[in-house]
Write a structure and sequence with these properties.
Length: 974
């Protein structure tokens, strides 16, 4: 039995114990003047919390997780299931426990002051000892814990600080989020001092009418407050006034003691510049606490945004405006440091989100790093702040288990107490995936009473009824609800709450199909207001391939453009030797682990376009302002006229002065040339000056309108040239190493796999068909080949007619799919080229990857990219690199030799150096060996991507049905 009282309490197995001697959470920023204890600490990893300490210490970097710092306790990924079998609140006996120790020199100047330790975050139980004496306990892994050490340290002397972090606890059962399991101290550790008389908390309420109210909570370390203290404050240099009414009311209230320590400051700002995500105007507030003699005992600084949030009917309003929520779910993540993120990393995350049109973040599924909220205030994001509660595996058992009541309320309350002053926070969320029980109502009650200025949401409560007035959710916030269901609700006449999906459009692998359909519906349907894409990051951890160890902090720079350097890879579930895991489900973000954007982001950017082409008429182009608060003056434009058979013309665009919601016609800057064929007009919109998130000239959107359709192509037969086919009827061509063949299959995407399509395709044998020639007919200048593709699921008849024409070869194809093959990946041609063709130039949609149901953000034009850059390196290799709406292309060598293809109409095309089977055969990108030549797919039809890995599949209109498919194309030698 241990003699240590903290260990004796066994707090890792006591859900009722949420903390001991932990100070109340508050919103006073103590970073300035604090001693930062970041760096290497002495470290031991024990097998269990009560195991004896060894003689030998290693070291561990704080803040950081030990699971990425060369210990044998490696990261582990499980989504819903807990990593151990014990039922709540039990935990396994094998319970890695990190003991961190360091000497701290407490400044001599702190004599007589109140000395506080702040541990930014530790998972999942923190025990604090100072010189061997117990100082405190905390749970709640993603919020700071503060402890008053005044009685335990001596200024001017050296103290040994020990932080013991127990990995598994009763709290792990309510921190069962879909992410890696780690252990460690993930946010900075600080030591700071205040005057005994101090500001214990400051609550700022700033309304859009300019009314500012600042509530101060004052405490004295000695207990009863000394008489005569008072507070003062200023906002951008203008003094605030003390609320005499508030003081008088307190003085007259017999229940109020001298201990209450509350004071209120007020002011009204005339012509206030309000805060919103488009123009995040902030004011600087300084609050001072004075002793009776006027000297300053304590100071607190805040940035204030004046704004109102309210729900009116079924609309969520910010400053009276029904703003669209273009959101993303975001975890604190980094491929080298796990859950530890620096200010620079956070800023880069938010800057990227801004550049791709996002205006909202749900802090899935716990309060994020405090710096995120500062940055969201500053850069402009609406934040749904979520409490650190997810009991997914044992949701039902825990939601009403009285032993966990305190933890639920504690976590929600501490989040509110920390983040209440941030204008960015517009909604409080009670957590994620924890069923719905009385604890949620208790937490909602606390939050609503404490902060009546913001709505509360909880998906588990909303699930009981989107319009139910009695559940703990002011917002109908489903996850992955089918669009039809949302539309039906909005049009049912029974909707009472804003409908904003807390998660939708699951971004796993090559995904996010139908995003444009969602946004068309959202923008057109009262009651629908947006949602949060799941999610920002692919949580791949940089891993050395040879020994399977995480690269950790030493891996800096060993990745780029979405891929790991040779010898490294992005690890996902199962890659650290564990047998029970959830695989690549952790790689479901809109950015790669190194924050390289996935193609979906370009789609999103366009769907969020602040200025759009509403229509094109003869008198000009009608532009509209789709923002909620801002004019167009921060944007610059350039017109681009792309002619299919002509040059691309550009001209400066004068953007009209439009208020939100307004439209205006602007004259077309070009006379459309008589010839040149199909014509597209693009407005290239960039930032006119420097924005805090984008330098001048950054692309904001690329709205486009078609000015003229393509005219039909006439081909002249050239019967005197023979068409060369082998005995199997396969085309023989000097530039092709594999003749054009029928293709019905793609390397399954994550959506295809998890949605069940890929399994069906394998059952149907589409990945390994047998080709049987039925007939080969040779006419002068023409060969007609009929072949059957025999698959377990049915036989596909394929006719290919190759005719010599003036331009080269015309390939006319027809495939007839039996009714049994009712939903296939593609119907099209695939061929392979000789090595050396390195440049792909095309007229069609681009330049980034696009698919039939993710093609709204890729403008039509002339595009060119090296073949090696066409492929998107999704973590688990899968169908990738496609371009939608391709009309024609050339594939050439540096000496300009190569081939040219012209399609009968816009088609899905991909040019990569991988066969579908190559992609499907491997599990990680580093295992792919590019082929020397190119693999070219031309699809008559290609299945949409959908989001079936977690949520709805693509829509029926994007499926490839059974029946007859026809397509044709010409092949020419350059
Ligand atoms: C939902 C979770 O909230 C989220 O954490 C993540 O797991 C996401 O799905 C899928 O990646 S829960 C799911 C079972 C609907």
């Amino acid at each position: 039995m241990t003699s240590d009282p903290l260990l004796a309490l066994r707090p890792w197995h006591a859900p009722e114990v949420t903390s001991w001697r932990r100070l109340p959470m508050n919103a006073v920023d103590r970073r300035a003047g604090a001693v930062r204890l970041d760096g290497d600490w002495r470290f031991q990893l024990l097998p269990a919390p009560d195991a004896p300490l060894g003689e030998v210490w290693s070291s561990s970097y704080v803040p950081g997780v030990w699971t990425l710092q060369d210990t044998d306790d490696l990261p582990r990924y499980l989504n819903v299931r807990m990593p151990f079998a014990e039922f709540p609140p039990d935990v396994p006996a094998d319970n890695p426990t990190g003991v961190y120790e360091r000497d701290v020199e407490v400044p001599a100047a702190w004599a007589g002051r109140r000395i506080v330790l702040q541990v930014g975050a530790a998972e999942s139980v923190l025990l604090v000892h100072v010189d061997g004496r117990p100082a405190g306990i905390s749970k709640d892994s993603h919020l700071a814990a503060e402890f008053d050490l005044t009685e335990l340290v001596r200024p001017g002397e050296r103290t040994v600080l020990r932080l013991t972090v127990v990995k598994w606890s009763d709290a792990s059962h309510i921190e069962d989020q879909d992410q890696w399991w780690h252990g460690g101290i993930t946010r900075p550790v600080l030591l700071y001092a205040t005057d005994p008389l101090h500001l214990a908390d400051v609550t700022v309420r700033a309304r859009r009418d300019g009314d500012l109210r600042v509530d101060c909570r004052v405490r004295d370390a000695a207990g009863a407050l000394p008489g005569g203290w008072y507070v003062s404050g200023e906002l951008d240099g203008h003094p605030l006034t003390q609320d005499a009414e508030f003081d008088r009311a307190n003085a007259e209230d017999e229940r109020v003691s001298a201990f209450l320590g509350e004071a209120r400051l007020r002011t009204t700002v005339p012509d206030v510049r309000t805060w919103n995500a488009e123009t995040p105007e902030l004011y600087g507030l300084t609050v001072r606490l004075h002793r009776a003699d006027g000297t300053v005992a304590d100071t607190s600084r805040h940035r204030v945004g004046f704004r109102d949030v309210e729900i009116s009917g079924r609309d969520l309003l910010v400053n009276g405006e029904r703003v669209f929520i273009r959101g993303v779910n975001r975890h604190d993540f980094h491929p080298l440091t796990g859950r530890t993120v620096s200010h620079a990393v956070l800023r880069a995350d938010l800057v990227l989100l801004k550049r791709f049109g996002f205006n909202a973040i749900r802090t899935a599924h716990y309060p994020n790093d405090p710096a995120l909220y500062d940055l969201a205030d500053e850069l402009g994001f609406y934040v749904v702040d979520e409490a650190d509660i997810e009991s997914h595996d044992h949701a039902h058992e825990i939601a009403d288990d009285p032993r966990y009541l305190a933890a639920f309320v504690d976590r929600a309350a501490r989040m509110v107490l920390r983040d209440k002053n941030h204008p960015c926070v517009i909604v409080w969320s009670l957590g994620n995936e924890s069923d719905y029980g009385a604890h949620h109502d208790a937490a909602a009650g606390w939050v609503r009473r404490h902060d009546p200025t913001r709505p509360v949401q909880y998906e588990g409560a909303a699930r009981l009824g989107w319009a139910d007035p009695d559940v703990a959710s002011d917002i109908a916030c489903p996850m992955y609800a089918p669009l039809q269901e949302c539309l039906a609700h909005a049009m049912s006449g029974t909707q009472t709450k804003p409908l904003i999906q807390c998660e939708y459009s699951h971004a796993m692998g090559n995904s996010n199909g139908t995003l444009a359909d969602h946004w068309a519906a959202i923008e057109a349907t009262p009651g629908l207001q947006g949602g949060f894409i799941w999610e920002f990051w692919d949580h791949g951890i940089l891993q050395r391939v040879n020994d399977g160890r995480p690269a950790g902090r030493g891996g800096a720079g060993l990745y780029g453009n979405g891929v790991a350097a040779p010898g490294y890879r992005w690890a996902y579930g199962g890659d650290f030797g564990e047998t029970d895991h959830d695989g690549a489900f952790i790689a479901d973000g809109v950015v790669f682990p190194d924050r390289t954007p996935k193609p979906v982001l370009y789609e999103h950017r366009e769907l969020a376009a602040p200025v759009r082409i509403a229509s094109f008429r003869h008198e000009g182009v009608v532009l509209s302002n789709h923002q909620h608060f801002r004019g167009l003056d921060w944007l610059a434009g350039e017109w681009e006229l792309s002619l299919a058979d002509g040059p691309t013309l550009t001209a400066l665009a004068e953007l009209p002065d439009l208020r939100p919601g307004e439209t205006a016609a602007v004259p077309l800057p070009f006379t459309l040339p008589e010839d040149g064929g199909e014509a597209w007009l693009t407005l290239r919109v960039t930032t006119a000056g420097d924005e805090p998130w984008a330098p001048r000239g950054t692309v904001v959107c690329l709205p486009q309108v078609r000015l003229r359709a393509a005219s039909p192509v006439v081909r002249t037969p050239a019967a005197n040239r023979p068409v060369d086919v082998d005995e199997d009827g396969l085309l023989v061509h000097p530039l092709l190493t594999a003749a054009p063949a029928l293709s019905l299959w793609r390397a399954p995407t994550d959506n295809d796999e998890l949605g069940g399509m890929a399994g069906r395709w394998r059952d149907w044998g589409l990945d390994r068909p047998t080709r049987k020639v039925v007939s080969v007919r040779r006419d002068p200048g023409r060969v007609t080949v009929v072949a059957d593709l025999l698959c377990a699921g049915g036989t596909v008849r394929h006719e290919q007619v190759v005719t010599a024409v003036e331009e080269g070869l015309l390939v006319e194809e027809c495939a007839e799919l039996p009714e049994t093959l009712y939903d296939v990946a593609r119907v099209g041609s695939v061929f392979e080229t000789v090595p050396g063709l390195t440049l792909w130039e095309w007229f069609g949609q681009g330049p980034w990857e696009s698919y039939p149901d993710r093609a709204a953000g890729a403008p039509v034009g002339h595009h060119a990219l090296p073949v090696d850059e066409l492929f998107t390196p999704y973590l688990r290799p899968q169908e990738s690199g496609g371009r939608h709406g391709v009309r024609r292309f050339t594939l050439s060598a540096p000496d300009a030799t190569g081939l040219a293809v012209r399609l009968d109409r816009p088609r899905q095309v991909s040019v990569t150096r991988h066969r579908a089977a190559d992609l499907a055969a491997v599990t990680h990108h580093d295992e792919l060996v590019p082929r020397p030549g190119c693999v070219v797919h031309i699809d008559a039809a290609h299945r949409g991507l959908g989001t079936a890995s977690c949520g709805p599949d693509t829509f029926a209109s994007y499926l490839v049905p059974a029946g007859v498919h026809r397509w044709s194309w010409t092949l020419r030698v350059l």
